[in-house]
Amino acid sequence: MSELKMWRASWRLVAGGSELPKPNYSEQNCTWSCIFLLCNLCPYSAGSHDGRQRKERKKTVSFSSMPTEKKISRVSDCINAMVDGSELKKVRSNSRVYHRYFLLDADMQSLRWEPTKKESEKAKIDVKSIKEVRTGKNTDTFRTNGTYDQISEDCAFSIIFGENYESLDLVANTADVANIWVTGLRYLISYGKHTLNMIESSQNNLRSSWLSDLFDEDDVNHNKQIAIYAAVQLIKKLNPGLKNVKIELKFKELHKAQDKSGSDVTKEEFAEVFHDLCTRPEIYFLFVQFSSNKEFLDTKDLMIFLEAEQGMAQVSEDTSLNVIHKYEPSKEGRLKGWLSLDGFSNYLMSAECHIFDPEHKSVCQDMNQPLSHYYINASHNTYLIEDQFRGPSDVTGYIRALKMGCRCVELDVWDGSDNEPVIYTGHTMTSQIVFRSVIDVINKYAFVASEFPLILCLENHCSVKQQKVMFQHLKKILGDRIHVDSPKLEDCYLPSPSELKGKILLKGKKLDTNCTASEGEVTDEDEGAEMSQRMSIESTEQQTNAPKKIPLLKDLSDLVTLCKSVEFKDFPTSFQKQKPWELCSFNEVFATRCACDFPGDFVNYNKKFLARVYPSPMRIDSSNMNPQDFWKCGCQIVAMNYQTPGLMMDLNIGWFRQNGNSGYVLRPAIMREQVSYFSANTKDSVPGVSPQLLHIKIISGQNFPKPKGSGAKGDVVDPYVYVEIHGIPADCAEQRTKTVHQNGDNPLFDESFEFQINLPELAMVRFVVLDDDYIGDEFIGQYTIPFECLQPGFRHVPLQSLTGELLPHTLLFVHVAITNRRGGGKPHKRGLSVRKGKKSREYANMRVLQIKAADEVFKTALLPLREATDLRENMQNAIVSFKELCGLSAVANLKQCILALSPRLTGPDNIPLLVFNLSDPYPNLELQGLLPEVLKKVVISYDMMIQTSKTLLESSDGVYERILQTQKAAMEFHENLHDLAVKEGLKGRKLHKAVESFTWNITILKGQADLLKHARSEVQENLKQIHYSALTCNLSKGGTAGGSSGSTDSKSRRSLEAIPEKATGEEELTDEEN
């Protein structure tokens, strides 16, 4: 072993300041290990030039990784790795970070580290003195350390030891190493000196019996071995994502290592290969975390996981048993009510753990609002299946769009031969299809994907003679489906989607109501002409020259009822003269200018009127505009080129998934309310709306295919993941993981990201997996999901190809959490800390209108607005402080807090030191014995949390009513606001500013009232969580599982909470030591 010790010493010397993991090489290859290590540290080695910058994205420098070590998938693997040792960073409260080599003594009684200035016997911790192993940056040392923001949450862990609950705070080089130490130490704490016996006894587990039964079923001749082909097929059946070649190679490697001549497979060999190929370490680490270090989850363990992590409500033992019976593969497990690692994996990969909330798979939104209050899935030049200038036209374009839930298709109709109108893009070389054929297809597929109204955008360029043919085809084929009832003049809004179910609306030009002749003249709308002039100056402007006049058949005109095409002049004219059933089409370039120059007016315009945006004529390649640019303005109909895949279509498809793929999505309330302030270009928080924090951990990937057409690296895949946020400008962001080299089968990323979402109702999350390549990073797969459809907890994300097809067995494994606050750390370091006293709080204020009567009314809201903010902030601050003392981050819920706290609340004889008195609607903690100092702090923090929660519940109703009274009184000025402003001498910009300030104030009042209502519901939910968690942990007194815990209110609320501060400065890690 002398050579091995020499190598270890050289490794410590050379890698002392680096973050390279210590390779687990045997004594035989130490020399090669040293050479390889030195080559990696050399600044001129080949591996150090894998970084480059692309135009679209910034790339990080990535280095070739060490050869893949043996997969960790048993407790024994963790213990062995700990005995071998690891380099870990030791974090101190003085902002210093020390590199130390930690290892577990062979007798598993002590944890040691070196080098150290201490005596060797003092540089250790006895395993029996360890109270708790805490994951993440969740101790005071981490929180007060100046390097907090530079330390990865996934690589950090703390060992709490001794009677004074001291902490040893450590950071591993990878999340995998951190998981090894956390899992191993927790196992040692649970079983102490019996650890070895437990490891040995756990080998004969549920998996062994299950695999044995499977093997015996295939071993029909009872030879105790099966053919290698049969063994490969059996494993392939159990894990369809594996490739046959890989499974067969694994068996052959095993046979070669055993010097075995035959190719038949024994039961032991089958189990070993299955274990190596089908055990996912990331799921194993999660499994042991909730199984109380057993080799299975019992019904109680599973209840805790489902409730605390997956956010499942009303979980009972029957719920757990149903999951076990559905997903546990072993007979023994189903019989005993145990879920094995394989059953747990089956559950996590099932549809139940899909990231998309199943509630949104069917229509779940209010469909009784006016049509203008919805985004409508729309297609541009639906008949084209390639480019806009020379591409072919085909009816399959309509079939595809309608099957995908499109509710607005386009028909560009021209005179054809044999008196049959045809569809194509005029002034171009696109091919033609017969109008009648398209109407037949529309009739067949109109309501296959959705029962809600379908809009046909009719661009009519036909002669009167062929218009008559068009009319006959429409009436004969579509018949009563066409909506022909004229709107009432007194109607202020369009009908709702529910009222128009099964109806087809024609959008087009319409003759004046006083026209009595069989035909008349209207202005032509010709997008094809725009494209033919695409190189001229006019192509970048909304057409302002005198429009061409064309004849229009009255019968055809009468079919247009709710979607009359009119020309847009400007916003003041539209506000004054436009009718709700009149619809304007905006060229993409002109719409962009409106969004930039008049963002507030554009939003207000779309509250009442339908607006259609179509792609710029410059897009002759059928590329797509970004629909979010116009959705943020409230534009309902953003016409997309369905034939062109890519990011923009991913956003469109993902967005319209959220309401049962019905083609209609209700717009955010702030875009629908008559009096509300919202600017499409806001780069800050939205008034009256509290940002939410999205926490996403990319854990691993499964079965990433080699990108199509990429053969430079053979079958090698070097994947990395981008997480993108799309929404209003303030929300747009992206983060990327590191590259995992040469592993497309089961790459482990273990990286966490945090995003502030200022307008959750308009945000989308997109996961993109790319293959890191020198030549250019290749697309592997993506998945796009609306923020409001995310399911919290551990979830699998099914990836889709560039053209939208599901990639078989290709998944991302992630963890999702959504919170309203970010807590912990020094306020000046963390930036978004919730530790804000009253003096530093930002209170919602009213703007001055310079209209005396209205300003006096708004002043009455100042005090209740401050009180509402204090009630919310005090409650939320107290909750975060309690979470921190429980050793958890702000992402955790109170169920997780009580579960984490429960071992500390139990004495040496399993007698509780504290119990929750559940007979009170506000559960208080009652002392049952002597408490250590650290628990006294927890009790004080818990009491503060309960007290602030109680104050909020008891005071919120009165404050809420006072805010609403001010809002009601202010709204009395709304109709006469303009006249009042003129009387006060306001005009021009000052008049406009007064109106804007009025809508701002009303928005603030509504928003703050909603936030207070939400805070009330949050408190009631927290009390329920405390109640049920206390019962689950047997720490209760005087309560029942059915207790309501003070839940008295079920009013509807927005899921919007308090606004955090903005992030500020950062500090760097230091390796210096005193």
Automatic annotation (TrEMBL):
<dbReference type="Pfam" id="PF16457">
    <property type="entry name" value="PH_12"/>
</dbReference>
<dbReference type="InterPro" id="IPR001192">
    <property type="entry name" value="PI-PLC_fam"/>
</dbReference>
<dbReference type="GO" id="GO:0005737">
    <property type="term" value="C:cytoplasm"/>
</dbReference>
<keyword id="KW-0442">Lipid degradation</keyword>
<dbReference type="InterPro" id="IPR000008">
    <property type="entry name" value="C2_dom"/>
</dbReference>
<dbReference type="Pfam" id="PF09279">
    <property type="entry name" value="EF-hand_like"/>
</dbReference>
<dbReference type="GO" id="GO:0004435">
    <property type="term" value="F:phosphatidylinositol-4,5-bisphosphate phospholipase C activity"/>
</dbReference>
<keyword id="KW-0443">Lipid metabolism</keyword>
<protein>
    <recommendedName>
        <fullName>Phosphoinositide phospholipase C</fullName>
        <ecNumber>3.1.4.11</ecNumber>
    </recommendedName>
</protein>
<dbReference type="GO" id="GO:0048015">
    <property type="term" value="P:phosphatidylinositol-mediated signaling"/>
</dbReference>
<dbReference type="InterPro" id="IPR000909">
    <property type="entry name" value="PLipase_C_PInositol-sp_X_dom"/>
</dbReference>
<feature type="compositionally biased region" description="Basic and acidic residues">
    <location>
        <begin position="1050"/>
        <end position="1065"/>
    </location>
</feature>
<dbReference type="InterPro" id="IPR011993">
    <property type="entry name" value="PH-like_dom_sf"/>
</dbReference>
<dbReference type="InterPro" id="IPR017946">
    <property type="entry name" value="PLC-like_Pdiesterase_TIM-brl"/>
</dbReference>
<dbReference type="Pfam" id="PF00168">
    <property type="entry name" value="C2"/>
</dbReference>
<dbReference type="GO" id="GO:0051209">
    <property type="term" value="P:release of sequestered calcium ion into cytosol"/>
</dbReference>
<feature type="region of interest" description="Disordered">
    <location>
        <begin position="1037"/>
        <end position="1074"/>
    </location>
</feature>
<keyword id="KW-0378">Hydrolase</keyword>
<dbReference type="GO" id="GO:0032228">
    <property type="term" value="P:regulation of synaptic transmission, GABAergic"/>
</dbReference>
<feature type="domain" description="PH">
    <location>
        <begin position="80"/>
        <end position="190"/>
    </location>
</feature>
<dbReference type="GO" id="GO:0007214">
    <property type="term" value="P:gamma-aminobutyric acid signaling pathway"/>
</dbReference>
<dbReference type="InterPro" id="IPR015359">
    <property type="entry name" value="PLC_EF-hand-like"/>
</dbReference>
<keyword id="KW-0807">Transducer</keyword>
<dbReference type="GO" id="GO:0046488">
    <property type="term" value="P:phosphatidylinositol metabolic process"/>
</dbReference>
<dbReference type="InterPro" id="IPR011992">
    <property type="entry name" value="EF-hand-dom_pair"/>
</dbReference>
<feature type="domain" description="PI-PLC Y-box">
    <location>
        <begin position="556"/>
        <end position="672"/>
    </location>
</feature>
<feature type="domain" description="C2">
    <location>
        <begin position="672"/>
        <end position="801"/>
    </location>
</feature>
<dbReference type="InterPro" id="IPR001849">
    <property type="entry name" value="PH_domain"/>
</dbReference>
<dbReference type="Pfam" id="PF00387">
    <property type="entry name" value="PI-PLC-Y"/>
</dbReference>
<dbReference type="InterPro" id="IPR001711">
    <property type="entry name" value="PLipase_C_Pinositol-sp_Y"/>
</dbReference>
<dbReference type="GO" id="GO:0016042">
    <property type="term" value="P:lipid catabolic process"/>
</dbReference>
<dbReference type="InterPro" id="IPR035892">
    <property type="entry name" value="C2_domain_sf"/>
</dbReference>
<dbReference type="Pfam" id="PF00388">
    <property type="entry name" value="PI-PLC-X"/>
</dbReference>
